[in-house]
Amino acid sequence: MKLIFATNNQHKVDEIRSVIDKNLELITLQEAGIDIDIPEPYDTLKENASGKSRTIFDMTGINCFSEDTGLEVDSLDGEPGVKSARYAGDDRSFNANIEKLLSKLSGKTDRSARFRTVISLLIDGRETLFEGICEGRVIEEKRGEQGFGYDPVFTPAGADKTFAEMTMQEKNQFSHRKKAVEKLVAFLNSL
Ligand code: IMP
User: Fold this and answer.
1) Does 74 qualify as catalytic in the annotation?
2) Nearest in space to 8 (alpha carbons), one of 32, 25, 42, 44
3) What is the pLDDT of residue 178?
4) Whose CA is nearest to atom 12 of ligand 1?
5) Domain range 2-190, its CATH number among 1.10.3720.10, 3.40.190.10, 3.90.950.10, 3.40.50.720
6) Separation of alpha carbons 2 and 157, rounded Å
7) 3-class state of residue 137 by DSSP
8) What is the pLDDT of residue 86?
9) β-pair partners for 31
């Protein structure tokens, strides 16, 4: 099956390509010749994911999916959550977002957090949603160079390394995105 993945984030493309079956052909927006920055204006991951996949399906008529991910920190009442990409401003700087997060957590003992991914899949215009969660904590200082976003300050439960200190295969043993994609693949295989 051929599916457009409605994202401009190459890290997400690489991660998802590393876990999908060979019989699923993933086409990026760039490969589909679509050059747009799809807005994420809503207050929930679900609405943003739905909005992105619907935009691309309406433009192309091709089956597609999108995902929206947020980091939810318990002692910050779930922040940055759905605002994870623009936590420190509209330029979406990974470093500035991390600096803001670490400063808001300064002095707090509860650093528990989770990544949550919601995928919206549109097959013939009909939507199915999938969710993946990775529990863990936000550490005090950045560690590691791999990955993207908040990876340098997040250690998943059961690991000492941050996501940014892991290979993609190691991150996949814990990853929210991998869990959501596995559900999507199982659903497609059941069709
Ligand atoms: P979005 O799903 O593209 O809106 O992503 C929201 C923000 O969450 C991104 O800017 C990243 O900073 C962060 N993010 C999403 N997925 C991950 C991940 O797997 N690791 C670390 N940060 C992530």
Assistant:
1) no
2) 32
3) 96
4) 149
5) 3.90.950.10
6) 35
7) strand
8) 96
9) none
Point out the catalytic residue in the list 35, 37, 68, 90: 68
* 3-state secondary structure (DSSP) of residue 56: helix
- Atom nearest to 149 CA in ligand 1: 12
Residues 50 and 171: their CA atoms lie apart, in Å, by 26
CA of 189 to the centre of ligand 1 (A): 27
Whether the CB-CB separation of 56 and 50 falls below 8 Å is answered with no
Per domain, the residue ranges of the chain are 2-190
Q: Is 165 in the pocket of ligand 1 (CB under 6 A)?
A: no
Does residue 93 line the site of ligand 1, with CB under 6 A?
no
Instruction: Give the C-alpha separation, 75 to 72, whole Å.
Output: 9
* Distance from Cα 150 to the centre of ligand 1, integer Å: 7
Residue showing tokens 């340098």:
152
Q: What is the pLDDT of residue 39?
A: 87
Atom of ligand 1 nearest to the CA of 48: 4
Report the distance separating Cα 23 and Cα 28, nearest Å. Answer: 16
Neighbours of 21 (CB within 10 A): 9
pLDDT averaged over 10-residue windows placed end to end, the chain, 191 residues: 93 92 90 92 97 96 97 98 96 96 97 98 98 98 97 98 97 97 94 90
- Candidate of 13, 50, 66, 148 to mutate for ligand 1, largest count of ligand atoms within 8 Å of Cβ: 148
